[in-house]
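S.,

Sequence below, as promised.
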Amino acid sequence: MRTVTYMQAGLDAVAEEMRRDPTTFHLSTDAPRPLLKEFGADRVRATPIAESAFTGMAIGAAGSGFRPIVNWSMVTFSFVAMDQIVNQAAKIHYMFGGQASFPILFRTSVGGGTKLAAQHSQSPYSMFMNVAGLKMILPSTPHDLKGLLKTAIRDNNPVISFESARLMASEGPVPDGDHALPLGQADVKRKGADVTVVALAWLVHEALAAADDLARDGIQVEVVDPRTLVPMDADTIRASVRKTGRLVIADEAGPTAGAAAEIAALVTEDPETFAALKAPPKRVCALPVPVPYSPGLEDHVFPDRNKITAAVRAVMAAGPQSS
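The prediction came back faster than expected:
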């Protein structure tokens, strides 16, 4: 076990998988120096600033027996490759009648905290969740990032790794050896009996901080980290809500048609879980506006531990108290 940053955990996962499988190669507009030094320019390609082109190249390479890793850097830059992602990568295995696999890992940063204004502070993963054929991860710790990335690289389907910009310098323990985690398995980061908080990415840490504050008032918060957006671990989320009877969902993205709305639907459409609810679910999301450049206004737009705490108190007040 060693302590590494979130960013280093991602780099370690890529390097280990490139050592393990010589068909794995890396495409990005800025070739990472440690990878370039170890694997050379044939396997670590610095591309032109043309995301549509190198995303399409990766799809062709994947269908030809390779395992490309594409780093868009920031999710904003993926938008110029939407045709390749949505019409090609997501659908090509099906449209080829399953005759070829297309193993591709797409990596990209999401979220605010960088004070880089509206175009560079987005979390649009729900746009991709609406497209059949793409798997998606959203890790909140170095441990989860490394383990999920290694599994994603080995998967025979296109996987998008959404990585929190706020967490890049954060540190955490990562096991030694071949540390891989299954897709579609949520993690209960803290157990509690009164309220379930399903939190995504950076907000997992804000939810844990809120849980510490609320514990001083006798409110036991269970924090669930989905880790994988597609497939989503509905069983773990529903089991937690059936235990606590209350649900708060914390997501750095906006509320409309988002991951938070999907999680709320997974809970309320299940008869047993719906029957266990003591209060309506509550979402804590970014305000539905372009993210302001002003640091103070950006902080106002995004959810944080204080807003999570207020939401927990609201759902506690809305229903019967625990005995």
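DSSP finds 14 helices and 14 strands in the chain.

Coffee later?
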